[in-house]
């Protein structure tokens, strides 16, 4: 059974930091590209950051470059998102995504974790 379980969300003041974690199980984690997406009310889900299966390459949305860092631990089947200098515009539900293109497309989502940025 595939599971992606996000944790680490919560309430933080503007300028603060949070680290999100996603624990994966039920599939070969090290084969999958992992990403973080976010969605705020009334908006489409958007890609925040992605990391290749071995962790050698990352990509970020322009709005988070220099503030967010994605990383992964293939030994522990986890992916992380370090978020610094948070602004109210970063408030959203953050989702973990696992994606592998083999003979077919395998695409999994977590249930999300809420990040609220407010003073």
Describe the structure.
The chain is 0% helix and 54% strand. The protein contains no helices and eleven strands. It has strands at 3-7, 10-12, 18-25, 33-39, 46-51, 58-60, 68-73, 78-83, 92-101, 105-109, 113-117. Strands 2, 4, 5, 6, 9, 10 and 11 form a seven-stranded mixed sheet that branches. The protein has a four-stranded antiparallel sheet with strand order 1-3-8-7, with no helix packed on it. Strand 4 (33-39) and strand 5 form a beta hairpin.
List keywords for this structure.
seven-stranded mixed sheet, 54% strand
Helix content: under 10%
Provide mean pLDDT, rounded. 97
Biggest β-sheet strands, sense, barrel: 7 strands, mixed
Judging from the principal axes of the Cα atoms, what is the shape? Answer: globular
By DSSP, the count of extended strands is 11
Number of helices: 0
Which regions have little confidence, pLDDT < 50, spanning 5+ residues?
none
- State which percent range the strand residues make up: over 45%
Distance between the termini: 40 Å
The secondary-structure element order is EEEEEEEEEEE
Structural class given helices, strands, pairing?
mainly beta
What is the rounded Rg?
14 Å
């Amino acid at each position: 059974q595939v599971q992606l379980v996000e944790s680490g969300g919560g309430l933080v003041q503007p300028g603060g930091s949070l680290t999100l974690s996603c624990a994966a199980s039920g599939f070969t984690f090290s084969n999958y590209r992992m990403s973080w997406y976010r969605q705020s009310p009334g908006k489409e889900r958007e890609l925040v950051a992605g990391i290749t299966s071995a962790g050698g390459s990352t990509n970020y949305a322009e709005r988070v470059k220099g503030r967010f860092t994605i990383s992964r631990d293939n030994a522990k089947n986890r992916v992380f998102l370090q978020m610094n200098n948070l602004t109210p515009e970063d408030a959203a539900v953050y989702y973990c995504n696992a994606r592998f293109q083999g003979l077919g497309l395998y695409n999994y989502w977590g249930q999300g974790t809420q990040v609220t940025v407010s003073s």
